[in-house]
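Q: What would this complex look like in 3D?
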Amino acid sequence: MLQSKAYVKKTRHGRVLKVVREHYLRDDIACGTITCTACDNSKACLSASPAPIIVFDTNVVLRQIDLLENSAISNVVVLSVVLEEVKNKDLSVYNRLRTICSNPARNFFVFSNENHRDTYIKGLAGESPNDRNDRAIRVASKWYHEHLGPASKVVLVTNDAENKRKALEEGIDAQTVEDFVRKLGQAELLDLLVGAGTEDAQTTADADDNRPSKRKVIYPEHKLMSEITSGLHKGIYHQGKLRVNRYNGFEATVSTESLGQEILIHGRIDMNRGFDGDVVAVELLPQEQWQENSLEKIVEDVDEDESEEPVGLVPGSAEQLPELIETGPAARPRGRVIGIIKRNWRQYCGSLEPVENTSSAGGKVNALFVSADRRLPKIRIQTRQLENLSNKRIIVSVDSWERTMRYPSGHYVSTIGDIGDRATESEVILFENDINNKPFSQQVLDCLPPLPWSLPAEELQNPNRRDLRQVRVFSVDPPGCKDIDDALHCTLRPDGNYEVGVHIADVTNFVLPDTALDHEACQRGTSVYLVERRIDMLPKPLTEDICSLRADVERLSFSVIWEMTPEAEIISAQFTKSIIKSCAAMSYAEAQARMDDSRLSDPLTVDLRNMNRLAKIMRQRRIDRGALTLASPEVKFEIDSETHDPLDVGMYQIREANQMIEEFMLAANVSVAEKIVEHFSQFSMLRRHPVPSPKMLEPLLLTAAAVGVDLDISTSKALADSLDRAVGGDPYFNKLIRILATRCMTQALYFSSGDCTPPEFHHYGLASPIYTHFTSPIRRYADVIVHRLLAAALGLSKVPGALREKTMLTSVADNLNLRHRNAQMASRASVELHTLIFFKNRPTDTEARIVRIKSNGLIVFVPKFGIEGPVYLTGKKDKKDESDWIVNEQSQTTESRDGKYRFKVLDKLVVHIEVVEPQPNRPKLQLTLVDQANECMSIK
Amino acid sequence: MDFISPEGLRLDGRRPFELRQLHAEIGVLDNADGSATFEMGNTKVIAVVYGPREVQNRSQQQLDHALVRCEYSMATFSTGDRRRRGKGDRRGTELSLVIRQTMEAAILTNLLPRSQIDIFVQVLQADGGTRACCINAAALALADAGIPMRDLVASCSAGYLNSTPLLDLNYLEDSGGGPDLTVALFSKLDKVTLLQMDAKVPLDVFEKVMNLASEGAKAVTQFLREILMENTKKLAFAKEPLKV
Amino acid sequence: MGDAMRGAHFRLSPAQKQRMLVAQERCRDAAGSVHSSAFVNVGDTIPVDYENGYLRGHGTQVVDGQLLATVCGVVERVNKLVSVRPLRARYNPETGDVVVGRVTEVAPKRWKVDVNSRQDAQLMLSAVNLPGGIQRRRTATDELNMRDLFTENDLISAEVQTLHQDGSLHLHTRSLKYGKLESGQLVKVAPYLIKRLKQHFHQLKQYGVQMILGCNGYVWISALPQSTPDIATDQKRANTESLEAAAGTADSQNVEISRELRERICRLANVVRVLGACGFLIHPDSIVDTYEASLSWGTELKHMFSGEFFVKVVEREAEQRSKKG
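A: Here is my prediction, written as structure tokens for the whole assembly.
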């Protein structure tokens, strides 16, 4: 049964090709019903009665995919003709549909009707492809009905009137989506429907008038794709990704290759319905319009959110800084969006704005959805459950944005929980950062060895594994740490040199390449550390027991063993798989106490002291080479064990013990990096830190100059030395300068060694020519890859196929960088959330330091809590020249007109911190200046 | 791209271990001593054999065995876009050599000294697996010409996509980037005459694909035998009524 | 065409196709029961009584103690000799065969003749009848004048003299009936369709036509020679030194052949061609039969290659076979 499909297509070069393909028809395709005796039902999951078998047509699937994802819909036959059409039209919907189908609990069966002898149809002469597909769907539905007998019920759900009519004529039970959902009797499903009729729509105050005649066109038209392509060729349009300013939803930049610099987009009309992340086509505005002051534009849209800088954590790097539009002399090119090339719509998390007239209870109401991410516009949805949803965080998805609508239209998908509830807000953080915290699937758990696990006998016989159980190995970690991935030892050799070893948990022994466990870990990329919990990359039995190098148990590890002179010169480095038995798992405080206690002189303490001494020498050598010591403004929360609310917040204390461990971890990472690059120069996973550009360091230099500190940024060593020399009035001064320096740095990145030249391997911050991550495979997937590479370099196993291709490794590295960034942002967001909760009922006065002077106030940094934010001296609405304050940007000072107060950058202040809610459900921290005489200086 | 759907069907509806439809015809060219066309799905190849006959180039004459020459070419209309290929193009030369070596191993050349056997193979329609198809066609043509052979050579191709070994790749699957292995066997003697692959694969994958291709070649042998037997019977019966 | 017929270039209408198929089926069925094991493919095992011993003939090989076929064909057993005869192979020469061939090359002391076999046959100078007498030492002059006897592209009839180990073939034309052929038609058919008979020279006096059925598949049809050559005439002629009296057949260069005779020759040739295309055995009786039938059907010469004629021929054959069987 061989059919042949012939069609004509046009190639890229414009030639016309006739394509002929074979199409085999089969008679061994099962119908998927459990009760059917005629077909092979090993994979069956449908039941013919009493519940009807549902067949959806393509347009219903494309538009109502959210409805299909809801677990109320089940017992569905997905025809292969529908699958193909969906795949061709929208890949993301196709992927979602496939995920539903592969979930056995949902009872979705994929029936290959195109290859089944009885249900395959040839297109008739003059029939359009769409008509032919519709006919195929009808034929297949009819076949199902006949195949399963008269007692079965088959329902075809389609919104196409023609299709429905023909189906009814042919004796198939056909219904529209609305009828179908209504019959199911679950009201909330109706909300999920897209484009449901607007008979009962009610207008609310802030929604546009829906009557067509009264709708005015707000946005300019998007140009046709053909015009855009020709425009791009000619160079009058430019293409790039739209990046909306995180703190101002109506400013965006588009970085294009064709222009070489970023194009500014200002204001809602110019943004023309573009979303953050869309690929857009931009037309440059005439040059006269480039100079306009950004502030004036914003004032127009009064009812939009303020564009103030928020109070939040200190940025850890330049990429986390709020992007403020500079009103400097150099005008950046401005443009406007004239077309969207690729939409980047996804699901968004947020809450509904309160609606004034809730007169009709139970009817369909228009509401505006506001996302947690400020880069998104408000989305209009229609819902029947307004009262239910008014205090909840919900997920919404976008459908369309017409020219006549001020806001895009979307529909409700699901609810997360109450606003302000810590668990809900944490969920929101995870959702917004694309962090997968679903429990591990059964397939993944099946990859684990059975518990309880103990060292298998064959490992002892394994010649590739060294038996180091008799060595005095110990580990030092944060208190309460259960996933111990590194342990060390330091023994004095008879010849006076030291043998120092770093042992890392042998995770790749259990996480084998290309297993479900491996895929899941690769996709997650890293463990995410929120304040109150940790989202693991690997299942708990591995992280806390089998791989964790706990004390007094035998564990498998991967070791780096150096022979060092007493001056910490490395004579040789050996890499081997090993078995260890840790004798002590200490916390940093414990280890420090032991070293400091001069009464103790047991072997363990002696080892610790020796290590410490070596570590200090190594650290000094690193600093001499130019490593930067930057200050971390990290804070630590003390959590109440019952309510899980934060009890206290404090700065992270760095002790010598921390630095000691850090030093050896760095050395291990460098040694391993050198080894794998030696063997696999084209596909090693490494980590680099690009040198920050002088432009990025400008703000630092400005501030430093204002306080009389001279910073030399020519090399990292020069910078490090000048940072050391920057000493000011009080001990905290130096730390402040370091904190300011940190925020100018670039982010470190994973990369594949085949993608960069060796000079580019350089890690600026550590001043090391080469670096990688090796020491934490339990919580970072990059380390797992490096473990595999090292094992292959030592000849212990072969290089996994996935790593052999250059492009694969590059995409894995990109994914890991993305996951790392997302994990960092989620951590920060979690800390900010907990800070907010902490201050909610505890307004506090505390010391702060000024880090920047602005035209309308100061930016201050609160060391105790590690937060930073604005203190306003002039109100929002005050004009610049009428203000009471004189600002000098160059010397970074501000003076009150009456001379009473004078503030200079890095001065000390006292501020009052409290939580306010200027808009309902949007709590934020506010800092206000406290007078020396302890009076609150309020501004209005 | 999904070369094999989660339901286990390939792009054209076959399952991973299924061959395409085979079709063969013997005796399509009158002038030649032996000729045959072979079709595997949409790939059609015609093979024509002249010989054994007097060696045309006296200097190449071998005193103790026959000279086997082979020429492979693709018709300009064989692929989607019409393309004229020169005589010396590398792929053509390589395939000519490969087919010659394979058939030479099969023909009992020492029974035909001082003679020449010419095999001409032309691809009329290319849709993946042309190498295998050419060898099958050449084997049929040689059998038709009555040239003594050690055993029937049959050949089949296989590949590996989406972590599944696939038998008899068509053009789409061939361009999918996975390995493409062609094997030619003596089915009765169970010996490999040709094994070609252009990819880098780990050993276990190679074993799976090779075994699958061998199975495919055995199935093709079955088909070839049937065709030849039918042809022989037809000729014999037509000639005269035979009696036991 | 459904059932490929070699050398047949015509199109059949559906009705004709049907008739053709039916007729071919009948032909086959009428063949009587044949051992299917008589047919083998390349590499098939030939059932042999290993105990009693056997002699291995052409088309077989021994592998691992088993007897395998090397060609597709029919198994022939003659006492203990087991061989496989392929059907469509090139001509396999045997001593004493009458062949018709074309001279391809004139070499020192020999001619090379193409006889549709593995190699070109050799006709030694010493193996031909010289014009000036039967037995004479070949002189140098003879050597230089070889071209006057036979030159390139001449058609000759000859007999296979010897067959050497390496497959080389030697012919001779030592009888007056052999020699150069002129004024006629050569038809090439597959060698296996021509059985070895006592006589290969057939004179159809009723048509005034002479046929030579070469064992190598080349069939020669021409007008009857004017006088039957015999040894006496030959000797007489031999005394004359005339070189123009070519060896063998009568001097027919100047004889005029009437249109009617030409038509008959043509018709016979077409009959041979059709029989060859249908795959039927070529036997003088079958040729004459079919010739008569074509005349009785009133088939014109130009229509002898139409589908209708072919179908009729096959049907006729089917009739005859079923009658016989």
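A: To summarize the key features: Chain A has six domains: 24-186, 225-342, 347-419, 442-691+748-827, 694-744, 843-929. Residues 24-186 of chain A form a domain with the Rossmann fold fold (CATH 3.40.50.1010).
Q: Very helpful, thank you.
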